[in-house]
## 1
Amino acid sequence: MTLNKFSTLKRPIHEIPEFVLVALKNENLLEDFHARPPYQQNDYIGWIIRAKLEKTKMKRLSQMLEELRQGDEYMGMAHKSKKRKN
């Protein structure tokens, strides 16, 4: 799965790996992920896939999922998200 093909990012755009997509779906966070700006989506994916150790990838994935769940953080920094409709 790719990020928004109309993105204006100037850096390489990362494909969403299957294990990340599965985790987002399993945690019901795919909509929250896509609600983030394209640069944040891309940064999260790049950060996760650059990890050399599988343990580190999973730790980063867990952090991303938690930040999406909470909605007020982006890679350890404050983030003002749009409220999710339930």
## 2
Amino acid sequence: MNNDILATLSITDATRKLATKEISSLDLVRACRANIERRNATLNAYLEVFDDVEAQAIAADTRRAMGEKQKLLGIPLAVKDNILIEGRRASSASKILEDYIAPYDATAIKKLKDAGAVFLGRTNMDEFAMGGSTENSAYGPTKNPHDESRVPGGSSGGSAAALASGMALGALGSDTGGSVREPASFCGVVGLKPTYGAISRSGLMAMGSSLDQIGPLTRTVADAKLLFEAMRGQDPLDSTSLDPSFYKEGLQRKKIGVPRHLLARGVDADVLKLFEETLKRLQEKGYALVDIELPSAGLALAIYYILMPAEASTNLARFDGVRYGLSRRGESLFDDYACTRGEGFGPEVRRRIMLGTYVLSAGYYDAYYGKATQARRTLSRECAAALKEVDVIMTPTTPSPAFLIGEKSDPLSMYLTDIFTVTANLTGNPALAVPMGEVKRTKINLPASIQLTAAHGGEATLFSIGREIEAV
């Protein structure tokens, strides 16, 4: 089997072939590395490819030969640069952590190590996960494998691009406001943002602690389920993590809620056409379409861009040049802080720190942060009420396909890309992005994606309907 076929297998298919000894983990790793050597210099998806990848694969093949049968044993994965792997560099694509070496494994990584996964390397991202295009990396932008003049989405753009270009069989990202689902949409793969607390955040560099979640990027819904089930579970190192008994059974009513009042907000006509065609095919499979109202969803972006910078400014206060990371000296302690943070953080990170500090400051806390917190609770109640009547809420994942690198130099236009994704992070609901077809831009076909949002613990419902979408 040639390298191109091996490197583009689904995890499910690769597991089947590994079990029958048709292929080895070493074969898979070498196929992925061949694509890395051929494409990464252009795409800039990986910041680092680990030097022991073949040794990891040989160890996995040995475990399988001794009778181990875990489904992820020997599967090569890419890992976003803000998820800790013990002994490996973890920079969050920032100069301030350029030489930081992780002292321990993230809980999700530990579970995948136990399952026998092979880690190929760390992938590029928007600095500290702040961005929707992977243009904010301190190490240069990642390019979209479908059209190298376009962005792969963000902030998990490196992981999505690595997967879409055959440089990994699966990948890990983190999702704070759509950072797994948006790049999944732009690169034509599946992306899952789990229920808040489903996967431990221990070992994930924090941006917005009440919003962040580790999530998988895969070629199929079945693969997303495999990775999710391997990583989920309660963790004593994360007090917000959930017990497995929290999860619900699958599909109940075969009803899909569509908030059509949100779809008039700048969705490209061809993306909307694909969305309606996908809904129609699901209707033909026996699903009922129900128009729903989420009155506060129109405020979701405003809520998010108050709460997220507030949490980010607090979380990033630890990078002060004293304890770890970049350190610059000035004439006073204040100068030490100012020089270190001014040189170490990029423009988007500095912008969000300043915004977050402002909304938390005396005199503005109640006017901005307090009101946003109240609006978030209202939005959560509206989503919970809607999901008592329908199985999922469906929208396009993004209003458009991947945009050109440099096209959205205005931060506000960039933030609008998150219009459909931020709600699930604010409410803690699980959401799944599934490819729904392609649209044409300048003679190139680009992927577009549909987003499914379920009740808390409703991942089984997402996987069930997601597989139906793949089949239509």
## 3
Amino acid sequence: MCGVTLIVNDGKIAAVDRQEEGITFGTITVGASVQQDRTRRDQVERAFLEWRCGEMAQRYERTQARLKKTSQ
């Protein structure tokens, strides 16, 4: 298992799934359209992707170590 699927609505978890394969359904409320600050959006997304790159590498290493330990 690699992760978790979350559907969040209004700051609350509407659905959660920790299965390796599947489809997750949830109900969300789509709010009114708002003016977008594309520059800020891009900065936040870039920062998240940079964080995720390092985080996923660490998770992979921990998983590999755990699997190696359990297979011995």
## 4
Amino acid sequence: MPKKKTIQGQETLIGIVTPVQWNEFDQVTAVALSATDDEEYRIENGEEFIDLIQKVIEASGEVRRDPKATRTITIKHFNVIENF
């Protein structure tokens, strides 16, 4: 069986941090970046960004896209954008 091909590379995205997964106590356990390119990127290191839900950030890091349209980002650097 052939390996799935993924496209990855360093990118900078701007978007809103949004919750995408909750536990049985209704606590957020995973977040995504709803980016200005109209795509959603699951944040791989999302536990660091739970406190930024509903904030606009500029995030730089490694982006991966697989053929089934799943997108993820591992954020290396970010800035909160106050007046977006």
